[in-house]
Write a structure and sequence with these properties.
This is Glycosyltransferase RgtA/B/C/D-like domain-containing protein. Keywords: Membrane, Transmembrane, Transmembrane helix. The chain is an all-alpha fold. The protein has two domains: about 5-205 and about 340-345, no CATH class; about 210-305, no CATH class. It has 21 helices and no strands. The model has no long low-confidence stretch (mean pLDDT about 95).
């Protein structure tokens, strides 16, 4: 019974999400990728791997609800596998599935058809495999975790740092007590995962559009406003752009309004030479040295919104986007409805400004688990818990300097990793 219990609990969780939120929520990003899946056109600015999965899903499943089914199937399977590996009696395993899988800050994200949810589910699956490998040391578990990490990195451009500690753990489990081999293997695995993610996102014939200028231009706009002078290279702005124009459009928690007037010449809509990209990159990288107070002040403000330190001032749409955005010729969809939806969504919305949706809580939890495990070093379970906590920290910390907005979904893996790491500290290896 205890072996079946987590899978039954996960099945109920899957059924709940599908019944309450079908066919899922489509933000602008989701609607854009749905349009790509329908038309076959690819935009490398969003991972093409998600479009390809969507194209396969719509061949055999209702569209777009099929993507809701697949991403939640991946998530709840990861939760069941993790609970099984954690051990304990039937009810302990059931509670693990529901406590992590239906944690409000995660449950609220699961209906959104986002690449972030795919990365979340695949990384959680990798951790489940590594937890299972502690109970039954087998290479197949490590290989499965490696494949899932490669998949997660394909869905999110910034996922590789979070994968690095998990890859190092895989190498250490393969060659324990051989640090040089572990270090070299970790580098090889990281390179292989990165290459696999690149290959999965190849888009022959599509325009190759780097995504970093979005962050660079937003940062330059913020510093220009603070310094009261335009710091952009001339080719990247419309002639006559003033600081007042930048100030009019700028919002401290999201970059999109800065580009809506078209006075910033975003590379998604213009062709630039390598020399012009170099000019923008040099202007961006000079900010911390040339304008440290303005730059780090801007980044501190973005981080305050991202980590939930300014929840009252942050719009709820930066946390959840429970809607279906119409885009181009995408078919009109009836939004989620029914008794379960009316029971769940308002309650989740009401929690948006509570600590459950404050990223700093999970940052502290992950750091606390890491510190406890390093000091305690009780067994291999503590080692894996420390690795998972580190993975969560490494998805979040780079965002303090690189986040293009303060969307809570960027911290989805931090939330799950901190909860899973904490659960691993109470793992029962022999049950």
């Amino acid at each position: 019974m205890k072996r079946a219990a987590p899978w039954l609990a996960a099945s109920l969780g899957l059924a709940l999400v599908l019944a309450a939120f079908w066919p899922g929520y489509l933000s602008w990003d989701s609607a854009w990728q749905w349009w790509q899946a329908r038309t076959g056109e690819l935009d490398p600015g969003h991972p093409p791997v998600m479009v390809r999965v969507w194209q396969l899903a719509r061949l055999v499943l209702p569209d777009p609800g099929g993507m809701l089914l697949l991403q939640n199937l991946a998530w709840w399977a990861a939760m069941a596998g993790f609970a099984q590996a954690r051990g304990g009696g039937a009810w302990r395993r059931v509670l693990t599935v529901w406590a992590v899988g239906a944690w409000p800050a995660l449950l609220a994200l699961l209906p959104h058809l986002w690449k972030d949810v795919w990365m979340l589910a695949l990384f959680a699956g990798a951790v489940a495999c590594l937890a299972a490998e502690l109970r039954m040391p087998r290479r197949r578990w490590r290989l499965a975790a490696l494949a899932l990490l490669a998949g997660g990195c394909a869905f999110r451009h910034n996922a590789l740092p979070a994968a690095l500690p998990l890859l190092a753990w895989i190498a250490w489990r393969e060659w324990p007590g051989r640090p040089l081999r572990v270090a070299l293997a970790s580098l090889v695995l990281a390179g292989g995962v990165h290459l696999a993610a690149l290959l999965a996102n190849l888009a022959p014939g599509a325009r190759d559009t780097p995504v970093w200028p979005v962050v660079a231009m937003w940062d330059i706009a913020a510093v220009s406003i603070a310094e009261d002078r335009v710091l952009f290279p001339p080719d990247w702005v419309e002639p006559g752009l003033t600081v007042n124009d930048l100030r009019r459009d700028f919002v401290p928690y999201v970059n999109v309004p800065s580009f809506e007037s078209g006075q910033l010449r975003l590379n998604f809509y213009y062709d630039y030479t390598p020399a012009q990209y170099a000019q923008l990159r040099d202007a961006w990288l000079s900010l911390p040295v040339g304008h440290p107070r303005a730059y780090f002040g801007h980044r501190a403000e973005v981080s305050a919104y991202l980590l939930g330190l300014r929840q009252a001032a942050q719009p709820d749409f930066q946390v959840l986007q429970p809607a279906i955005v119409p885009l181009r010729d995408n078919p009109a969809l009836a939004p989620p409805s029914g008794f379960l939806h009316r029971s769940l969504q308002p309650r989740l919305d009401a929690l948006v400004d509570t600590p459950l949706f404050a990223g700093w809580i999970y940052l502290v939890l992950a750091a606390g688990v890491l510190a406890m495990c390093v000091l305690r070093r009780r067994d291999a379970g503590d080692g894996l818990a420390a690795i998972v906590a580190t993975s969560g920290l490494l998805i979040a910390l780079p965002l303090l300097l690189l986040a293009p907005s303060a969307d809570f979904r960027y911290l989805a893996w931090l939330v799950a990793a901190s909860l899973m790491a904490f659960a691993l500290t109470t793992r029962r290896a022999n049950q």
